[in-house]
Design brief:
- The structure is a single chain.
- The protein has 11 helices and 3 strands, in the order βαββαααααααααα.
- By secondary structure, it is mainly alpha-helical.
- Strands 1-3-2 form a 3-stranded antiparallel β-sheet, with helices on one face.
- A hairpin with a 3-residue loop joins strand 2 and strand 3.
- Helix 1 runs antiparallel to helix 2.
Length: 237
């Protein structure tokens, strides 16, 4: 898992998410790793990868550097976007492989984004069920059945099962989704983090006060979405 520094937003809009997916696909070919699953959330990314040629740390460094270069240019910012150290764990057996794959695909659902595992556009589940782009779906299907149609049916059932799976011990549950908070910011005339961070303090604090008054939004979430520190937000009334 890779996430924004201080858990801040790394995808401002769908264009950013499309850019990250293209970057991931590009470096899959360059670095020679397999992609079995992915999920893009607003402030972090889950990946299920297999190292083939280059090491995973090297591959992730390539991916993050390329994405951040374009992100900084687009939003006229400088500096780091991702935390220096990604979180990872080894997948030692087939059973845990499927557990991790389901956890990744259900991450938006468990975070309160959508009512089913199919509602998020930004997970690899759609490549498994609809159209393959660059994800290796064969390994996952073969763990269910050698018959492709049977495997697909069993895969769909498994991905929708209610469970208590926890991988990397990271959860991101909120009453309002980050996208909903961002939409509210947009209604206030704030279209991206750079705009908010470049406001004078008085105007910025007015916007942050509006966010704090929203029901179902925490200081931690506001900090994550805006990139403003929690201590600053906590002092605003």
């Amino acid at each position: 898992m890779i996430r924004g520094i201080n858990k801040q937003t790394i995808f401002e809009d769908e264009e950013d998410k499309r850019k990250f997916i293209k970057t991931l696909a590009k470096y899959k070919e360059i670095s020679g790793f397999e992609v079995y699953g992915y999920c893009l959330m607003d402030n972090h990314v889950h990946l299920l990868l297999e190292e083939i040629k280059e090491s995973i740390p090297t591959a992730l460094k390539r991916i993050s550097s390329s994405y951040v270069y374009g992100y900084n240019k687009k939003y006229e910012r400088i500096g780091h976007l991702f935390q220096d150290r990604y979180k990872s764990e080894n997948v030692e057996d087939d059973t845990y492989f499927l557990t991790v794959l389901r956890y990744i695909h259900q991450n938006p659902l468990k975070a309160g984004i959508g009512k089913s595992v199919w509602d998020s556009r930004w997970t690899s589940i759609h490549e498994y069920v609809h159209k393959v782009e660059f994800v290796n779906i064969d390994k996952g299907f073969q763990l269910f059945s050698t018959n492709k149609k049977t495997a697909l049916v069993q895969f769909i059932v498994y991905m929708q099962e209610v469970n208590d799976d926890r991988c990397l011990d990271f959860e991101d549950r909120v009453n309002l989704s980050d996208d909903q908070v961002r939409e509210y910011l947009h209604d206030l005339g704030v279209t991206n983090n750079s705009m908010l961070q470049q406001m004078n303090r008085r105007n910025r604090n007015v916007v942050l006060a509006h966010l704090k008054n929203l029901e179902g939004v925490s200081i931690r979430q506001i900090s994550r979405v805006t990139g403003i520190s929690k201590s600053v937000i906590a002092r605003i009334k």
